[in-house]
Amino acid sequence: MTTLHPAPPVDGDAAAQLAVWPASTTRLPGGDLAVGGVPLGELADRYDTPVYLLDEEEVRTRCRAYRAAFPDAGIHYAAKAFLCRALAHWVEEEGLGLDVCSAGELELAVATGFPAERIVLHGNAKSPRDIDTALRLGVGRIVIDSPSEIARLAAAVAPGQRQDVMVRVVPGVAAGAHDAIRTGTEDQKFGMSTGDGYAQHAIARILDQPRLRLTGLHCHLGSQIADVRPYLTAVRRMVGLLARIRESHGVLLPELDLGGGHAVPYRPGEAALDVPGLARRLRAELEEACAAARLPVPRLLLEPGRAITGPAGVAVYRVLSVKQTAGTVFAAVDGGMCDNPRPALYGVRYAPRLVGRASRTEDRPTTVVGRLCEAGDVLAEDVPLPADLHPGDLLAVPVAGAYHLSMASVQNLVGRPPVVAVGCGRSRLLVRRETLADVRARDIGL
Ligand code: LLP
């Protein structure tokens, strides 16, 4: 596809509505939108719906923004937000590392040429396969999440070898947009707490293991955090622990990984985490805390996921039915919680819009639902959409690049949608649509 459409000038209000769309988004004369120079109507015709696009330049720009804000830090993209081979390639070319949480993510990345030494393996319940794959492929660091992992991991390291590890500590900081994505407090499954001495005990045991080399501490506060302050609190606590480790063991740990969690807006007017501001204030806090504790400043590592790919993705659905029930207008589309479970899981609100044509009718409150057989399959409740919305129309949902397809299911055997890269007026298929043949191929018994 090679059409490049000129962008008509966009007035202030209209520009605000596109604030959460990829920077390349333009309005086309007939009412459609183009992303990466590709009209969404054409995209839907060519690849069918539902279809997810990823704006390659938006992903790369976001990677570069992190590297510019944190020139001395290690930035590991959190693959759990979304991973495919092309994405691993872009992230690698932009000089980032990768955070993976399974042998699957790890193998996919390494098979695509991602350098294993730039990969960090996470997981609160690492399977033997996760650990074996990490050691076989030579992963850079493994983040130990529980005491039981220590001996298991040390035993799996080949004699004469040493594996770099970090320890995941619970910083005791409450942050994040929803209970299910808060991981910095004591009442959740990740990491080890300092309050009950678990973390200190684990650190002592790791330092005793000749096949493990402890490079630093890790913490991850949660996800969709728009405020810098929880990170500053976490830094102070982590530096306090680094100082105690030096006192008890005479060891200076060279790295501090603060995880990810940086918020992006899903609807116009919502807040993003200010990444350059985070960089400035983290650096100042870290330097001050380390000076007070007379510690050298450790190298920072960060693991943004959503902030790299979320705003680069757009989901495009076809409307299959429009009806009114007890005063609510329902527009049902050809996807749903099978490709985006986030509204159902965390009550997240999105801003879908009509694409592919212009409408001259007024907007009215409309609830966009999916096609799955359950009433909770709602994608966007009470959002303004044109009153003449009808079957066959296209609805596009911005900020769909993170935690949609990585959490997709095959509920009701509706296959998972394809992923298409867009840029410079061209599109190319990255991940093909899941077909009934794919589903049937797994179903081998009678
Ligand atoms: N590092 C670790 C250890 C993590 O567990 C996560 C996310 C990240 C980094 C990246 O966080 P991000 O920058 O993307 O917020 N499914 C939820 C989000 C779950 C986050 C899981 N861990 C959602 O859709 O909001």
List the helices and strands and how they pair.
Elements: H1 12-17, E1 26-27, E2 33-35, E3 38-39, H2 40-47, E4 51-55, H3 56-69, E5 74-78, H4 85-93, E6 97-100, H5 103-111, E7 119-121, H6 128-137, E8 141-144, H7 148-156, E9 163-170, E10 192-193, H8 198-207, E11 212-218, H9 229-249, E12 255-257, H10 275-293, E13 299-302, H11 306-309, E14 313-325, E15 328-333, H12 342-346, E16 353-355, E17 363-369, E18 378-386, E19 394-398, E20 419-423, E21 426-431, H13 436-442
Parallel strand pairs: 4-20, 5-6, 5-13, 6-7, 7-8, 8-9, 9-10, 9-11, 11-12, 12-13, 15-17
Antiparallel strand pairs: 1-2, 2-3, 4-14, 14-15, 14-19, 16-19, 17-18, 20-21
Ligand LLP binds at residues 78, 80-81, 99, 122, 181, 220, 223-224, 259-262, 303-307, 342, 346, 402-403, 407.
In short:
With 446 residues, this protein is of the alpha/beta class. It has 2 domains: 12-54 and 312-441, Lyase, Ornithine Decarboxylase, Chain A, domain 1 (Beta Barrel); 56-310, Alpha-Beta Barrel (TIM Barrel).
Word description of this protein:
- There is one protein chain.
- With 446 residues, the protein is α/β, with parallel strands linked by helices.
- The chain has two domains: 12-54 and 312-441, Lyase, Ornithine Decarboxylase, Chain A, domain 1 (Beta Barrel); 56-310, Alanine racemase (TIM Barrel).
- The protein contains 13 helices and 21 strands.
- The protein has helices spanning 12-17, 40-47, 56-69, 85-93, 103-111, 128-137, 148-156, 198-207, 229-249, 275-293, 306-309, 342-346, 436-442, and strands spanning 26-27, 33-35, 38-39, 51-55, 74-78, 97-100, 119-121, 141-144, 163-170, 192-193, 212-218, 255-257, 299-302, 313-325, 328-333, 353-355, 363-369, 378-386, 394-398, 419-423, 426-431.
- Strands 4, 14, 15, 16, 17, 18, 19, 20 and 21 form a nine-stranded mixed beta sheet that branches. It has an eight-stranded parallel barrel with strand order 5-6-7-8-9-11-12-13, surrounded by six helices.
- Helix 3 (56-69) runs parallel beside helix 10 (275-293) and helix 9 runs parallel beside helix 10.
- The longest helix is centred in the middle third of the chain and has 21 residues, at 229-249.
- The protein is globular, with a radius of gyration of 23 Å.
- Residues 1-10 have low confidence and may be disordered.
- Bound molecules: ligand LLP.
- The modification N6-(pyridoxal phosphate)lysine is found at residue 80.
- Pathway: Amino-acid biosynthesis; L-lysine biosynthesis via DAP pathway; L-lysine from DL-2,6-diaminopimelate: step 1/1.
- This is Diaminopimelate decarboxylase.
